[in-house]
């Protein structure tokens, strides 16, 4: 586990772009934190580094967006999902089991049972003393991403 403090949206964007430089195809990233924490902003900036052109918008209503960059980017948002059974319909398990791209899942903690065994977890928390500050915690869940986590910790300095 490691954490980074950002003091503005621009700093979170910068951090996300560094992460975007390191992520590789086949990675599942779960992004959690309150509404307005910065999850979508984070995905937008990773996607930018991955060469996605055009706007990356929150897939709140359609549950998933797909983008083409240097690799495919899947962006799930489970905020409005009420029933895990719907995940099957949107192909969630196919995309998360062996992804042909990079998969982001906002609000993954709503359905912990449905997540793959291994994934990278990013949790964004507001800091009480400063409305524009965030504490961003990175974890590797399972064995698969332990080395990636170490690399990210070394690479993401600012
Ligand atoms: P979420 O997807 O978590 O609901 P968004 O990414 O849509 O959140 O929105 C985050 C909002 O918080 C943006 O308007 C952004 O400008 C603002 N913000 C302010 N400070 C920060 C920060 N340090 N990191 C990320 N976002 C921040
Ligand atoms: Mg969002």
Automatic annotation (TrEMBL):
InterPro entries: P-loop_NTPase, T6A_TsaE. Belongs to the TsaE family. GO terms for cellular component: cytoplasm. SUPFAM superfamilies: P-loop containing nucleoside triphosphate hydrolases. GO terms for biological process: tRNA threonylcarbamoyladenosine modification. GO terms for molecular function: ATP binding; metal ion binding; transferase activity. Pfam families: TsaE (PF02367). It is found in: Cytoplasm. Keywords: ATP-binding, Cytoplasm, Magnesium, Metal-binding, Nucleotide-binding, Transferase, tRNA processing. This is tRNA threonylcarbamoyladenosine biosynthesis protein TsaE.
């Amino acid at each position: 586990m490691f954490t980074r403090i950002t003091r503005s949206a621009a700093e979170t964007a910068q951090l996300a772009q560094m992460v975007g430089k390191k992520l590789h195809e086949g990675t599942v990233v779960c992004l959690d934190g309150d509404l307005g924490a910065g999850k979508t902003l984070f995905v937008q900036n990773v996607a930018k580094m991955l060469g996605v052109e055009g706007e990356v918008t929150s897939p709140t209503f359609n549950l998933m967006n797909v983008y083409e960059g240097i690799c495919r980017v899947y962006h799930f948002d489970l905020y409005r999902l009420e029933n895990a059974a719907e995940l099957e319909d949107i192909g969630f398990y196919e995309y998360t089991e062996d992804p042909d791209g990079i998969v982001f899942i906002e609000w993954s903690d709503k359905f912990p049972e449905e997540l793959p065994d291994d994934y990278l977890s990013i949790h964004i928390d507001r800091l009480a003393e400063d409305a524009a500050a965030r504490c961003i915690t990175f974890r590797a869940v399972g064995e698969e991403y332990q080395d990636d986590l170490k690399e990210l910790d070394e690479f993401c300095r600012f």
